[in-house]
Structures are given as C-alpha cells and as structure tokens.
C-alpha cells in the first residue's frame, strides 16, 4: 500500500487565507517603516482542551507547506486593491506585498515543537522570527493550521486512552465539518493512536488502514431470500463450490427477518474471510443476532472464520454482554471455536464519557467505532490558540489583561523539558534565550510565571530542548525532513507513555508544571509593572 | 469586485471520499446483480439543531459539483485493489467502478430543495433516484457536503435573529476546523444574513464584503510615541498636509499608554476614513478609550469621520454602555457630531446565548464580531443527517427502530408546503408520488406520521412543491442553474420572513407541523406492522 505522508496542496491555503486586519495593520506599519523591524511571535494556547491536562501538538506539516509557498499572486493583489477597505492604500504597499516571500527574507526563521509532542498551556508550539510585517501576515493562517490538527489529535488520544485495551476506529466522514475537516480528523486520529478509518480517501492519502462493514441501507435493500437462493461459496474444507443458503437455513431461528438474513448471506459470500454484520436494522436480539449466528455457523462449516457483529443502537453495555454470552454459549455447546474469536464493534454516538461509562458498567465490546464526537470534537470544537508578539526590535513585549491567563510571557526564550530518573518528565522550564541552558544534575529553581508563592526545585537527570529550527532563511531542507505519519504515530505513543497517568486521567487530572527561570520571572514582573496603568481614585 | 459563486474544486472531493462500507456493500450487491436495481434514497435529518425549530438547507452547489464529476480514476482503482479489505474482490467489480458515471446512467436523477430553503425534520433535502449501487456509493459524500453548510447557515441565521437590529460580522478563520471549514463558514454565514467576513480569501472567492480593524499584536508593536512623531495627514479642511501627532497630544489624557496611543495615531493616518481602534490591549476605560477619543478628535479636526472602537474582553454590556455614554458626553459638550456616529464592535466569545443576554441587560454595541461559536457551531457541531433507502425495485422500504424518530417514512414521495392567507406556511405535507397533489382551496386532512391522535385539517391558499429536479440523466444544465450567493442570501431572508416568530424564537420555539397524507400514513403503518418482529414470550 502506498503511504504518502502529506495532505494534497489545499487550494484554499494561500496568502489571502487571513483576516483582513492582518493586511490593514501591516499597512499601518509599512507606512512608517516598522514592517521591517525584527519581531518574534509565539503561537500557543492558554488552556488544555476537554478539561484535560495535556495537548498533542500537530499541524506542523501544513504550516511548513504554507510558509514555504507563501506569496501574493497578481490576482490576489488586484483583489486587495479593489476592496473598499484597502482601495486608498498607497501603491508601494501592494508592491511590498507582491514581492514578499519567506524564502527571500534572510532574517526569517521558524522554530517549532516536533510533530506529536505533548505540550501544555503557554508553551509556544511555533515560534516565528521575522520582520514585523511578514510575521504579522502569517498569524491567522498558522493559527488555523495548528488549531484543528492539535485539537483532534488530543481528542483522539484521550479516546484511545479511555477505550484501552480495545482499539478505536474512526467513522466520522459523514458528520465532519467539510471534506477537509474529515480527512484532517482521519489523519490526526490515526497519528494519536486510532487503529483505522472508514474514510477511503484518507486511507489512500495517508496510508491509514481502512475498515468498515455495511450499513442499514444495505440490509434494507433485501426483502426476501429470493436474491440469495443461488449463491455459491467455495467450501475450504472440501475445496468444492457449494450452495451456501441451505447450510445457513439449517441453522436459522424462526421469526427472524428474511431480508436481513438474505443480506447477511450475500455479505458472507462476498467477504467470507472478513464477514462482520450490522445486526440492529430490525431487532438486535430477536433478528440480527440469530441471523448472524446462522450465517457464522455456515461460514464455519465452509472453513471460514466469521469476523463478528456491529451494534449501532440501544444499550451498548447490555446488548454487547448479551451477544458475547450467546457467542460463548454457542462456542461451549457446539465446540465451534470460531465463536470464541468474534469481534463486537459498538458505534452509536460514542464519546470519551461514554467510553468510561461503558468500562465502568461492563461490556462485551471488542472495538469502538467513533464518528461525530471525535471528528467535530463535540466536547470542545476549537482549541483557543493565540499568536502573540513577544519581542520587537530586540525589546521584549507583553500583552496585559485583567484576566491573568491572558497575560503573555515576554521575550525570545527557550523551553526545556526536565526529566527525572525514570525518564519521567518533571517540569517544563522556560528561560530567556541568553540564559545558559539547565544541565542534568543542576539544582534548578523554577518559578510559576504568575503566582509568586509557587516555586519548585528540580535536579533533572536529563534535559531536552523542546524546539528546533524547522525553517531557516528559506532552507528547503526543512520540508524534506517533515515527519511521516507512522513516525508521528509512534512518537505520540512514546510521548504518552512517558507522562504519568495522573496527567492523562479523565477525572480531575493533575496539572503538569510549566515554570520559568528566576531571571524570566523577574523580567516578566518588572515589565508588567512598568506597563500596567495605575488607577487614580479621587 | 468580482464575485464568483462557487468554491474552487476541492481536491479532496472525489469518489474515494466515502466510507469503505459503501464500497464493500456495493460489492455484495454487485455479486448478485442487485447493483443495477432501481432505488430511491432520501437525505434528511431527524432533529433541528441548536434546540431550535427550523433548519436552513445549504450545500447543494457542492453536491452537484461532486455528482457531476463522480468517477473512480485508475489510480483510485489501483488503491482499492491494493487494500486488504478489497483485495479478494472480483476484477469485474473494479471494472464496474471504473466505468461508473452519473452522466452515463440514464435512470439517474436528483431532486432537491432550493438552496436556502427552510426545512424541518424528516423532510428530504436531497432525493437520489439511481441504480442501487450508484446511489449507495454517493451516500457518505453527500452527507458530508450537506451537513456543515446547512448547520453553519442555520447557526448564522439564529445569531442574526438574536443580534437584530445590529449587524454580525464573521471572524472565525483562526478557530475553524481547517481552511475549508473556515471558508465554508464564511460563505454560508453570509448566505444566512451575516454582513461581512474578516476572511480575505472567502471575500475574494465568494464576493463577500470583508471587514476588520487591527489586533492586540499591532498595539503591542508600539512602545513609545517616537515612531509616529513625523506622521503627516492631509487636513481635508485646509487641504494642506499637516503633522497629526501634535493635534492628538492636545487632546490626550494623562496616564494612558504611550505605545497604544502611537498605534492609534499610526492607524488613523493609514486609514483616516475608516479608523476603528481595538481599545482593550492595556485597559479599556483608563487607556484605550481616552486614547481613541484623543485620536478621534484630531481626525475630526482634520475633517474625517472616525469609525469607532472594538471591545474584545471584559463585561461587554457595562463597557459598551460606558463607552457610548462617554461618546455622547463628548458629542454634547464639544458639539462634535462625529461622536454621535461611532461604531462599537464587540467580539469576545459571542454566541447565541450571550447575544440574548446582552439584549436583556442592555448594551451600547452597534455590531457583533462572531468567531469560534459561529464557525465551529460550538453549541452543536454536527447536523445528524442520514441517507436512507425509501424505495427499491419500485417497492417501498422502511428502516425500523425501537427509537421512534429513527423510523423512516417509506416510498418515493412529494412534499408540499401549504400556505395560509397571509402567505404564512401552515404545514409541510408529504404524500406518495402517485397521489394527486393538494390544490389551493382543498380541505386536506393531514396526519402525523407516527402519532395516530395527531391530525390537522388544512385549507391552503397556495401550495408549493418543495423539490425540483436538479440533475437528470446527466443534464449539465443543472449546474449552470446553481444559485449564486447573493441570490441565496435574499432567498434565506425571504424564507425567514415568511415563517412566524414562534418557530424562530430562542426559548421554547414552536414545532412546525410536518404531516403526511392519509394514504401515506396507512401505507407506512401497514409496512411497519409487516416488518416489525413479533416478540414471543414463554
């Protein structure tokens, strides 16, 4: 199977895929020559999604492709000139836009986390060093390109944790927010540990295993056994092609739906090695299950291992337990070993919460098909990423707010992940770029960026710098090095394994410490004080 | 401004953008020759989104483009053959797929609602008549293409109703579910009554007015007045170019942030006719507002009408009222009429609920900027559309369920909207296709499809057939007739105006009646009884 690793070029991802105000404010800068002043921007989020305590960074590939090809076409420029909002701008500005290019800007550099890294609030995922104008023009698009991949990867990883040890299959194409929303969800759900997707196009694009059986419409298209009277199947035991229906009818239970049985028989003959039947079109226990059992016994007689059933409605806990016990009964009473090996897929509106509920109540499910709640991230459909100026002309910048989490941490900085003896991450530690990096064995005092009473002393066994340069002065090498999907998938798993369960758990997860150096703490608070207005009361 | 009306061809929308099970179940049909049997499928939803009582149908353009170009490429076929799920399928099946085409299938027909029609649960939005195999292969993609456009249009229409009489602007690009999610949201939010978008690419693609001012990062890029010392602006009154900063400083209030004032001055000189300032970077009332007022007074002196302010944090009700009263005070005390005409845009996490809360509490806002909650449809991020077989080989089909709303209404049918005297829709009435259509003046008995005690007698003043043929036997004309965006926008408005407020209101909306003919009722219940399994108790 071919496995290319990147999405096809999206015709929507152009320099115009931005907010108008990026273009207007860059104009205001351009008019006074500020657009060439060196600036540093950080892209980060303020709060982990899904009331959780971790986030998985994804979307870097898309960002790099966008950055690499960033430019305004002549047609784009004509459009901009024609809009009422910009029609009075000076021609020189449009000329500036027309010739703007990331690969032609010597001072342009992008640092980023590795795709699939576990990340926490306030830690930059992407750091852009660029002339102010160029850096500003990239903001909205980069936010868009990181937001959904990271969100859906995090959602998927949480679901995989909740479903353990049972695999999860992504079924969301029909309910996703557009074709691109669907394929992006398939890609990053797989990166974060899903086992397969039902989306064939995503399977082809990204080399993801595809999976699926049949739907209700298939069963509805049969109304009697007439259609399957003549079906023949190779009997693996006798190596002769034999009529299949008579064998099934020998095991049939009275009162089940004829059309449904016909549908199962046709499906079994089409896919004798992978026959998985949707059993709830008419009535799961009275019709679907007995019809499947009759079909499966016949497959067994012909030397095939039937695959199992899918439940798509009703009480999934009770129904799956009942189906499982019926399968065990058949296995025990008839010594049909194939019945000890059946899959029970459940797939009706499953989300993280129902996965935990099912685990608590008990169930007989062996795989979960998850659609809407995964791909639309129903529990929280956007990750609130922001893109903030942290340095300008070598001078650190701060964004104040009455809302503490909205205050930015100023300055160009490095972030280190400090590990303990067992290779467990202890703390993420942010220091100013000119500080010397922390070393294993050092006794490092870490401060909470805002709460003066919160401090932590850490003597790490190892230290990892979280960011690396992914695009520098137009180096095309950056793109070639972009990770492939199966590597990212392994990396996410490694990342998840490293972190303690307390951080990954569903209920009341523990906050992972993100701290700053003493120097950065002092610097941040000085700058804050200098910039905050003093209220005067009379 | 150019205004093309359709999205660019999305490379993801191909015949492979489907669930694997569409391909496996079609194979099971193909093996026994069922794939050519005539079938009728309906695409509909079961429940209005957002706890509301109406839905706006959108997405038809995308569906028609997909249908028109539907085909499996050689590369697609190679991929399918290579997958473990399909590698044992017979070659003839792949040949069938390779040559399958909507335009070459004489019996293929699509009927649909007009783009922008108000629609209710169970009413088909799209009706596909096709050979079973082809109809089945279109399912997932059509669902994907209708789901999000209809959802986001409905969400937008509800927000526009909640914000009335103030306009809404779409700001969601950065938080949307991918580039396509963003542009689709921009398009259908505009169709449903939004006034503008901040998304420049969507503006260009669809001819939507673009709107936007500047962001916090812009303000942060200024730290002193040095940058703007030399700024000159044409004084419209004297027709001389004059220094602008001294004029502003003459009106400056002590203690405001220098960098912020510099940012406003630079912005005013860049956009003197449309100067709208974001005032909450440091402190709205102590710094942003007085800095804006000083800038606006200077613009007034130079003969320009300043545009206004944007509030992006804090208590939007109290802050907007305060800003409004300060503007009125300036207007009253200084006779500066421009202050009577200022815009106050609010834009922090606004959703339908906060719009109603603001209206109730009172505010001074004159326009709303809405992002995340609009474009991701946070309140309900998917419309649960389904695609069901309702007829097969001329025989009506039903999908049963223990869950009443999940039962399908069988048979090929027509749907009529019956109107009363004032042109108000009274009831949507579904009848079997061979029934004679209801006529104005007829006394029509309508039945609830499931609840036997619910009946309604209606004597309509006028009758409209809701569906029309949009694709017939490969008629390429269908696409050419596809509606353009501004027409759809007017049509949505007309539709909304027609329906009574009771159906559109936020709290406890009234359910609009969707009823069936006596014949269809009887037919449905007979079929239901025939297909439902009889429980046997011992």
TrEMBL record, chains A, B:
Residues 412-523 form the Nicotinate phosphoribosyltransferase C-terminal domain. Transmembrane segments: none annotated. Pathway: Cofactor biosynthesis; NAD(+) biosynthesis; nicotinate D-ribonucleotide from nicotinate: step 1/1. The keyword Ligase applies. The keyword Oxidoreductase does not apply. Residues 16-147 form the Nicotinate phosphoribosyltransferase N-terminal domain. GO terms for cellular component: cytosol. It catalyses: 5-phospho-alpha-D-ribose 1-diphosphate + nicotinate + ATP + H2O = nicotinate beta-D-ribonucleotide + ADP + phosphate + diphosphate. It is an enzyme of class 6 (ligase). Its EC number is 6.3.4.21. GO terms for molecular function: nicotinate phosphoribosyltransferase activity; transferase activity. Keywords: Ligase, Phosphoprotein, Pyridine nucleotide biosynthesis, Transferase. Catalyzes the first step in the biosynthesis of NAD from nicotinic acid, the ATP-dependent synthesis of beta-nicotinate D-ribonucleotide from nicotinate and 5-phospho-D-ribose 1-phosphate. Helps prevent cellular oxidative stress via its role in NAD biosynthesis. This is Nicotinate phosphoribosyltransferase.
